[in-house]
Amino acid sequence: MLDVVDIGKRSLATYRGVAPDEQLDALFRSAERLRGARCLHLSATPYGGGVSEILRSLVPLYNDLGIVADWKLIHGDDTFFQVTKRIHNGLQGAPGALTESEKAIYLANSQLNARRLIADSEDYDFIFVHDPQPLVLASLSGNRDARWIWRCHIDTSRPNPSFWELLAPYLLDYDAAIFTLQEFIPPALPIEHVRVYAPAIDPLSPKNHPLPQPLARDVLEWIGIRTHRPLVTQVSRFDRWKDPMGVVRAYQRVRPHVPDLQLALVGSLAMDDPEGWDCYEEVRAATAHDSLIHVLTNLVGVGNIEVNALQTYSDVVVQKSLREGFGLVVSEALWKGTPVVGGRVGGIPLQLREDSGGILVDSVEECAEAMLHLLRQPEEARLLGERGREHVRQHFLMPRLLLDHLHLMDTLSSARPLPSRDIVPSPLTAIQGV
Questions:
Q1: Which of 86, 204, 209, 321 is deepest in the core (most CB within 10 A)?
Q2: Which stretch of DSSP H or E encloses residue 34?
Q3: Could you give the count of Cα atoms lying within 13 Å of 293 in the half-sphere of its Cβ?
Q4: Neighbouring-strand partners of residue 340
């Protein structure tokens, strides 16, 4: 059987006064037509990336609305995840091709996971499959009663044809697909129903909940950050697409102008990303001589609260990605009122509108210039952060993402009606705050 992630309970009532009221009201109206439905989200790992962070907050909210939802994980050994990382990179345009042996590893593990899904004997109405790791399960599970949705979180605008031709036939069994941007929709996508909407952050999660400045200072001092010195931070997986070495080079250009400037490079090492270890070691080796560069991971006790403190207390947050699906850390930083210097790729420009949130850059040199500008102009940086926070409130908080999912589910169930289910008591009072 597939592993079930323990997600606890959440209440949409707690978002009243945080997320826009109109989104919360619309959620209840949409959920009325779906109460009693059963929904599954499938992914590769319970921690270490944006997908897991989204699902940990999103899935409990389905249940609060009366939609029975689970989050389950596929299984795989290190070899399988090495292959899926190559597929991930190939879908983002990296060169190369899978060997016949690697294709066999991917398909054999997918067959095992399909059998585990069948053994679960759960009668789901909707199955959301996140990214390429579990993609093949729609074809192999034999469950055609469910409405299958592929949620692609990465930039597949120019996929390597070798990888795309391998996976595209397995998408024929999907009822719908979701992408973050219109331009991410790959050529000749064999799915008729396509939605485009962005991911979102949870403003009430430990990573994003308001953190008092004194507590933030204490947390940072505890992990070695000196709070009397200026600080620039990048939070992301140790992944070459996130260009951590480019951030280091930009920092080194700024450092002569701000001699006591600190840089924090912070990331999780996840079980479905074996390349992350190589990137981490490369960054460690390149920065070992500089005591003001802090390379921090979940392996040394840096988790949600520490990241919250870093994003809250930093003078500037950087997300200098070379390819990016969305970049949740941009919205996370903006939610705390911290300005962002971001790469002009993927979903980052969605979050950094003109004169709002921060500065978009295209090179190491531009990144350094933008960092130095914001460090030297703290009032402008503060205003950018404030405007960015409101932009995130309107567009990139968890209730809006849940609402988009419910609209899609409602459309799919209208085309193919759901079977009758036991009705869960309505959460009307909780949502409307009466």
A1: 321
A2: none
A3: 21
A4: 317, 358
Which CATH topology does 213-395 take?
Answer: Rossmann fold (3.40.50)
User: Is residue 29 classed as helix, strand or coil in its secondary structure?
Assistant: helix
Does 211 score more than 60 pLDDT? Answer: yes
Give the Å distances, CA to CA, from 373 to 133, 135, 181, 362, 369.
Answer: 41, 44, 30, 16, 6
Cα torsion 251, 255, 258, 259 to 10°: value is 140
- Determine contact, residues 37/409, Cβ cutoff 8 Å: yes
d(C-alpha 392, C-alpha 216), whole Å: 22
pLDDT for 148-196, tens place per residue?
999 999 999 999 999 999 999 999 999 999 999 999 999 899 999 999 9
pLDDT band at 432 (very low <50, low <70, confident <90, very high): very low
Read off the pLDDT band of 272 (50, 70, 90): low
Question: 364-376 and 244-254 helices cross at what angle (nearest 10)?
Answer: 50
- The sign one gets for the Cα dihedral 212, 247, 391, 304 is negative
Q: What residue segments make up the domains of the chain, in order of their start? A: 3-200+398-417, 213-395
Of the candidates 100, 101, 88, the residue with the CA atom closest to the CA atom of residue 160 = 88
Spatial strand order of the sheet with 262-267 comes to 293-297, 262-267, 231-235, 316-319, 340-343, 358-361
The torsion angle over the Cα atoms of residues 165, 166, 167 and 169, rounded to 10 degrees, is 70
CA distances 136 to 170, 190, 195, Å, are 6, 14, 20
Model confidence pLDDT, tens digit, residues 321-342: 999 999 999 999 999 999 999 9
Which of the four CATH numbers 3.30.750.24, 3.40.50.2000, 3.40.190.10, 3.40.640.10 does domain 3-200+398-417 have?
3.40.50.2000
Domains 3-200+398-417 and 213-395 share a fold: yes
Residue 49, pLDDT score? 81
